[in-house]
Amino acid sequence: MSDVLPEYRIINLYVGGRNPKIPLEYRKGNYTNQYDVSISIFGQFGASYYERWQHTHFNGHVVFFSGENDIDHPVKGITSKTTNLHAFGPIQDSTAREQDMQLFYFQLIWWLYYRNVLSPSALTLPDDRPKGNSESNTFMIYANSNCVPYREEAVGLLSEIGQVNCDGKCQGKAPPSGSRENLTQTKLGGFGHWWDNYKIYSKYRFCFVMEHAGNNPGYITEKIIMAYAGGCIPIWYGDKKIFDIFNEKSFVYYNISDPQPALDLVNALERNGDLYEKMKKEPILAKGNTTIEQYFSFSDEVGNGALKNEMRNRLGLSNFSP
Q1: In which domain, by residue range, is 249 found?
Q2: In which element (H, E) is residue 9 found?
Q3: Same structural domain for residues 125 and 173?
Q4: 69 and 197 assigned to the same domain
Q5: Interhelix angle 260-271/273-280, nearest 10 degrees
Q6: Which of 153, 182, 206, 211 would bridge 238 by S-S if both were Cys, CB 3.0 to 4.6 A apart?
Q7: Distance CA 45, CA 223 (A)
Q8: In this structure, are residues 107 and 219 in contact, taking their beta carbons and an 8 Å threshold?
């Protein structure tokens, strides 16, 4: 939001423990105006205290951010007339109020951690895509500690194609053959920050990056972004909204209800180097610069700031000047 609202002074109210730290000058009286913006992470510690403060002492716009889903989002059921209350997150197009905005978790994570590694040119130009280390690549990495049954089963089936390194708590389910010969436990992770783990991915041809909730509309996390940043081919499953964002020819969509097409494709890519390189030469995004503008343009320097301007419009701040 500091990029979307560069003229604003940002005050962090969550410093110093589990409860918000409301600055003394704001605790009493009405020291805010209609141009002020209060940002809350839905479900964050101290939310109830903070929300009481918003109701009693805040006169501006209130934005609830959520990266998970909109099932329990706090603005659901609130009428469109409440124009100063906003939901920014996986809001579904069919139910979104005019002042709300659909944002995916991967967008925020890309902006915070990956926009240099996976630059706009890398997202749109095949020659600029991260290449990975093709000299030392092995078949596939599976790095998860949330052992979702359908992910475990899929890893087991994929292990019949090649060696899978299981770099986390989850070790995959034995395939129908019963052999775990191609499921190897490794301990490669640990850069100090989870967002640096994409560096491990660069050693593999495929990265298994399924979401943990495939039936969760709007839930698209950093997993597929990390795979592209590492230069491997993502094997992904989740909300089919993905096809509006990422080029379907640049990754493998593994449908857990019908896995055989994905298994056949991975097998073909693994056995045919030319076919594999052809996929690696596909652009990452579905619609090039149009997708950059729609999903990645949080500042004027990226995609002419289209997303930044839309967020400001939703907040009623498009014409605001300090």
Answers
A1: 109-280
A2: none
A3: yes
A4: no
A5: 110
A6: 211
A7: 25
A8: no
